[in-house]
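Archive transcription. Copying these from loose printouts into the bound notebook so they stop getting lost. Printout 1 of 2:
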Amino acid sequence: MLAEADGDPQAALPLFEEAAKRWAEYGYTLGRGLALLGSARCSLALGRKTDATPVLHQAHDIFAGLEAAPALAEVDALLGDQPAAARAAK
């Protein structure tokens, strides 16, 4: 989302949350995972690690199921699991 790219995680967070909800309703799994990842990045940028962690785990499960290695590596890096991120990137 542009708000995140513009450095405004406060504005981007509800947009990502709404996008994740709508992608889930539509049935687009990758879109939902990417929106969850964006939401988690915004939460982390706002210092809300406890909010971000369960969302990152949801995104992780989605990306693992899709075998989406680059996205999985980003999630693992945000979760602090650098070895898993390196394995996923291979």
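Printout 2 of 2:
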Amino acid sequence: MSWSGMISQRVLGAIAHPNWNPGDDYQLLTGCENGVPLRRIAVGLMRDPRAVQQRWHRLRVVPGVKAALEPHKASHRPYDYGDML
């Protein structure tokens, strides 16, 4: 595995959550970058606005998170903990 691949796997491991998936995380980050209000993102993701806000606060502090999610942006499968650690 390449150095950047190892970093991406560590980032994904750091943000993995059983109730979230890479596609939803990517959509949340992209929406916030484009100025979409969290409540509107929550409606699009069919999630509670408080859950989306908490997830946003978790994701925004992880360096390189969007780049790590980029290859998985269309995946709505749960995070695979075995491949990320």
